[in-house]
Each structure stands twice: as C-alpha cells, then as structure tokens.
Give the backbone structure.
Amino acid sequence: MVWSAYTTPRARGGKPLAKAGTGSIVRGMTDPVLSFTDRGIYCAAGDFYIDPWRPVDRALITHGHADHARPGHRRYLCTDACAPVMRHRLGEISVETVRFGEQRRIGDALVSFHPAGHLPGSAQIRVEVGGEVWVASGDYKVVPDGISEPFEPVKCHSFITECTFGLPVFKWDDQSVVAKELNDWWASTAADGKTAILGAYSLGKAQRLLSMLDPDIGPILTHGAVENTNAVLREQGYALPDTIYVTPDLNPKDFPGALVIAPPSALGSQWSRRFGAASTAFASGWMRLRGVRRRRAADRGFVISDHADWAGLMQAIEATGAESVYATHGYTDIFARWLNTQGYNAQVVPTEFGGEDDEAEEAA
Amino acid sequence: MKDFAALFTAVDQTTKTTAKTKALAEFFTTASDDDKLWTIALFSGRRPKRAVTTTQLREWAAEVGGVPLWLLEESYPIVGDLAETIALTLPPPTRESDLPLTHWITELKSLAALDIDQRKARILDAWDQLDPIERFLFNKLITGGFRIGVSRKLMTRALAQATGQDEPSLAHRLMGGWTPETTTFHDLIEAEDAEADDSRPYPFYLAYQLEDAPEDLGSPEDWRAEWKWDGIRGQVILRSGTHHVWSRGEELMTDRFPEFARLPDFLPDGIVVDGEIVAWDGTQPHPFNTLQARIGRKTVPKKLLKEAPVILLAYDLLEESGADLRDLPLQDRRARMDALLQNLPDDAPIRPAPPLAFDDWDSLANIRATARDHRAEGVMLKRLDSPYLSGRKKGDWWKWKLDPLTVDAVMIYAQQGSGRRANLFTDFTFAVWNGNDLVPFTKAYSGLTDEEFRKITAWVRKNTQQRFGPVRQVKPEHVFEIAFEGIHASPRHKSGIALRFPRMSRWRHDKPLQEANTLDDLKDLLETYG
C-alpha cells in the first residue's frame, strides 16, 4: 500500500497539542491537523469532520456502526466498501466514495482511507496537512478474520485510537479456537434436539460468525435485521454461507438442528420463543469476563470481538510510529496512563463513540 | 484438577438448575472421596486457611504478567473478581499437569510452614502448570468466597442423587462445625452414626413473605401467630453437658453470647431450641443496632454484657432427651417447649416467644399494625399441625412483615459492584436536604431491575463530577425512594441516623430534585419509630 508507506514521522517541534473538547474552531497556522470539538473530530484544513455525532456539512465516516455513522449530515464520504451498508442503514443520504488507499484532496488536507479490520468495509482515516500526518482509527482489529479487509498499519505522527478493551485482562484466542468451540456447541445442541440461538450485532459480528460456522452441522437461520445486512454484503461480493431468513410463517420444526443468528435484543423475546427448546449464546469480547457472562444469563458466551485486544492495541499503536496518541471510547483514563508510562504522549479524548451502554456491550 | 475444572465449567455454562445438579451429581459419583469432601466443604462455605495474602498474590501476578501493579489494580473493579483478574492477567502456562483438587489444597495448606520466597515460588510454579480455568479456581481457593452459582441446597440435592440418601437427612449431616481436616467423606456422608457431632445443629426452617391476604390461608384456628422479632435467628444446643449457639448463617456464636452458658442450669440435657437472639431490656427487645454492637465482637466487655444482655426468644423445640422432634406437629413441639420453659426465673437467658391471640384475620391485621411498638418487624404465621421442615418452604410458615418505611432521597455517589454486577454501577450513596446542602445518610445496593442498573450506569458514566478512588461523585439529579425496616440514632454517621435494611424501592423519575425529603423529615421518623 503506497499510501501507508509514509516515511519516518517528523518531530513535531514543540507545537502545542490539540486540547480535548475545545469547541471553538478558528483557522490559523498553528491549528492542529485534527482537533476535538463537541461535534466530533474536526479537520480545519479541509473543513470536514470524522464520524461526527452532531449534524455537519461534510462527514468522513470510518464504518457503518450507529455510533460512527449517524444520520443528518449534508455530505458523506466513505469507502466504496462501506457505502452500501451506510445507505441501507441511513436511507437517502448523499454519499461520495473512495477506494481503500486512494488519496483525495479536501481543501488543504490530503485524505485517504485504510482498512481497519473491524468489519467489512471499515476504515481508518489518514489526514495529512503540510507534511504532518494524523490517523483516526475509528474501531479496529489487527487480527484478520477472513471476511473484513485486514487491518493495515499506517505511519503517522498522531494516532487517535479506540481502547474498548484497553486492559491487560483482555486477550483473544485465535479465531480457529473459538470457531471450534462455537461449532462444538452447535453440534451438541443439535444432538440434544435443541435449537442453537446465537445473539450477535447484525452488522459485522453476525457475518463474521457466519464465516466461522460449519454449514455441515445444520441449517443456519437468520433474524431479519441480520439477513438484511447479509443481503447488502452478499451483493457487494463478500462470501457468506447460505442462510434462511426467519419469516413470520417459517416453521422451526422444518429445520431440525438449526442455528439461529439474531440481534441480542431478540433473545428471550417473543420472537425467539418460537424455536422451543433452545440453548442460547452471545458472542462478544465482554464474554471474557465471567461477571458479564453471568449477567447476560445465556447458556454460553463466546469470546469474539471485532475490536483489538490489549496486545492488538499495543501492536497497532507501535506500528504507527506515532508520538502522540489520543484515546477515545473505552477505559481511556487507564489506557492513556499506561501509554504515558511507555513513552507516548497520550491524552484522553471524550467522544460520543461507544456510549458504554448495553448496546455497546452486545456489539463489542 | 481437570475434573473439578470441568465441573465448574459445566455449572458455569448453564443457568438451569437441573443441568447444574446433574453435573454435580456426576462429579460426586466419579471423584475420589477426598475431592468429594473438599467439594462439599467449598460449596458449603468452608475453605483452606489462607497462606498468602491477596496483596502478595496481586504483586506476584502483576510481576509474572508483565504489567505494573497499578494496572492490575485498575482492572480488578472492572473484572469484579480478584481471582479472575489474576487468572486473566497471567501469561499462558508452559507446562501441563492433572493433579487432583485435594493435591492443590494440600499444597496451599503446606505453604504456611514456608518462608515468603518459598511461598511465592510455589504459587508461581502452580500457575505455570494450570490452565486458565484451573488457575481461576486455584486463585479462588486462596481468595475465598467460593460462590460459583452452586447453592448449598443445589449441592445437597446433587449429593442426594449421587448417594441415594434423602435430601433432608443429608442437609442435617452437612450442618455444623466439621472441616475436611476433622472428618472423612465416609464419616460425614456414609457412616450410620451421623449424630456423633454434639454441636451439630438442624437445618433451619425458613418462611416466605406472605404476599396475598391471610384470608387465603383458611381458618385462623389452624394457625399460630407470634411476633416476627428483629434479632439473630439461632439454635441453642444442649448436649453432653455443654452448649452451642449457632446462627442461621451457620456461624458458631457460642463465645459471643456468654449469657447462654447458664442455660444448663435451667434446662435438661439433650435439647435443641430454635429462636431469636435479641438484646433484652427486661420487658422487650432493644432495637437491632444494640444487638449489632455485640455481633462483631468475639469477646464481650463487661459493660456491654450489662447494658445489652441477650436472651433467646424461643420459637420451637427441635430435640428433647436427644430425640429429633421435627416430625411432630408444631403445637406438640410448642407444648413440650412451654413445659420446659415454665417457671424459669426472670433472669434466665431464655423465654418462650409469646403467641398473639386473635379471633379473625382482621384482628391479626390490627395487631400487626402495632408491630413497631413492640420492636417487631411484623408477625409470623405457623400452621399448628406443621412439621419442622428444612430450608425455605412454602405453605406452613409465613412471615407477614410490616410495609417498610420510605424516604425520597438524592443519589450523590456511585460505585461499581462486583461479581455478576461487575462493571455496573450498583452501590449508591443517598442524601437528603438540610437547607441547601445534601447530607448523605445511607447507602443502598439493591432493589433496581437489571435494566434500571444498566440505565443508571450509563448515566453515571456521563455525569461523574469527581472521583475518589472507586467512588464517583455524580451530579445530584436522580431521586430514589429508599425503603427500610427501621431507623436508629447513630453518632457514627454524619446525618446522625442509621437505617435497617435500606434498599431502592423505586426510581422516582416523577420527582424533582428539590422535592426529595429533608433531614428534618428523617428526624421526625426517628422520633416516631426509633
């Protein structure tokens, strides 16, 4: 990738760093490449925002999850891989697309999108102004999952990182290990004459799980929210196994030994009761914690996340060569403190990503 | 320990009691006697003596895990369990082993004789050969509190399935002061003579709260009513010339309540009495906080003994002349007990809990309404022909407590819970108005639904004003109705009051901040009910 092969980062020469949440935006020679405002991450040189949470004129979007791709902006720019899902979720919007790695000039800023490995179509956004490079990572995962475009390290001076799982207790097993656990659970559930119901966020997590399942075990049924997203991604050419959409008149008895993928909110609802005797499971990085697993009150919790684990975060940050790191959503205080002890100039940036609420817990 | 880890995994992976019981019963069928005995011990709250401190454990884990201690400490409240935090922080083991549960417990016990460097070396050596789940369990053996979703009742049921014995008699065998060091699986579970332990109490019979009108219970003549006293439910045992006092939590409290040492002067040998331990003012119980001053002390200063002597308000006679009376009807047991207790001097440390006379349910309802005047929490209803069952059972015994007192209070501090509530804000401090100030007066941890805890957690994260370690000061905004059973003066608290059993009974979304109750309102309650 030509665009990520940025040469050794230049020392920043003691320029004042961006301060979090300053709000006011005045163009000037000392403007940082990106600053943190109450609308979102702002680039003064290009007059655009990255993943803004208030309506703006021009929004660059890393990926289609609801906390990053919000409705109401006048113009959107994202990768061509991300656009179909955005249109699907946000309806009639004005979207311009770029290819991964393609460089765009916006005002005085050079902008390019690079794979973040978080979910199909997800990107980090590289912004270069006057030779200084910042990267806003959105959400990312460094380990390839077989379906998302693999994460690509991008050299930069300043790196805006998520840290959803920024604690050393979060370590992910290889996907193949979890895939085996998942398929073993499905097979034994089917052998018990029960339906396996797996709760997973409908964009990203659901498709990754689909790609991990062994279709020889039985039929795979999907909730509408998952199936609609599948349809969008299949149309784009992402390879997913065959699935059967659970329509209101579908009779579960016709599909013995089935596994059902549904959004977490559908588990325990009227919708899921139609499947009769069932074993339920969630798939999320939070399932690493026994307390969360027990609170979810599912039969199983599979530790699989579309975010980087502790080692993945450190690896990603190191690979950027950045001196300054801005920590957003997650255990930001703790993570920034750790980075500072490791020789980085790290700061906490309050954002409205993640939200730390129930939905985030299910999605991660 | 692989079989024990597999048992844990099976139990932990399901929320269904039948599946848990099945896994346990299987373990009780296949494991060695030593491992079975230790498993029973662990699931009934017994554990090996702690040979290393949790501080040492944290330091060593941080060192081996290659993280600074502060980072492990910060992770702990998020994980919500120290044993788990350590297990998750350690690097993967380099070796494998399959030594039995009992081996690791013996290993831990043997650490006591070693110096600190040797202890550390042995712990590190253990970590290096245990897989993640085994490590978690190993750490749990050290940190204690082996709560992994197996209640004692569930364990007893599984043991009954595995041994073919009936559940109540097993429950009885498991009571008392035994430890795996003082008995064997055979002596505890299989031997014919299970009565050898003189101190062994009977499993307590517990009542459910009466939710509906008492009219549904049928004719009042079939029922006995008495006050539901607010003390410590306990059993007093006189056997072989000595006495033992057990709390309902199965804690041996003989030494804490020396008053009962005089019981053999008044009562014959071979009896067991179930009752309420209360601090007695000569005519009625002191408020519970007077008794509380006694609970924490292993030895009691003379002054306290004089100011707050305890007595047993006797509810029931479970054993007489060494014979188990539990299958007799309540009225017969009471008649025998009353005969034993009649004509005792006034200063005897035991007296029968008096019956409440009532003709119909309405008159009992009127009596119940006066419970607080009698320092009682409500009334108990017991069917006259009922046997003394074991555990919490519906049907024959009911508690009919008074509605709690309530105040509307402002949440000002929040802290995260642990275990199942890790990473959720569940522990709150509440305040009432004193002029323009908010004065903290109570903490509360329970009463909200999971959904409400999730909502308030998200809110706390966005509305934290200041942090004091794990405690967050939050914007005063939310009003909660706090329910409690009693109110007492307390010089130790800033507000000057202390509540009994405070909990959040309602999230008052409808109540503006300024309309929360005041310190004067609390003082009025103290005046009336304290």
About this structure: Chain A has two domains: 2-169+306-363, 175-302. Chain A is about 25% helix and 25% strand. The longest helix of chain A spans residues 175-191.
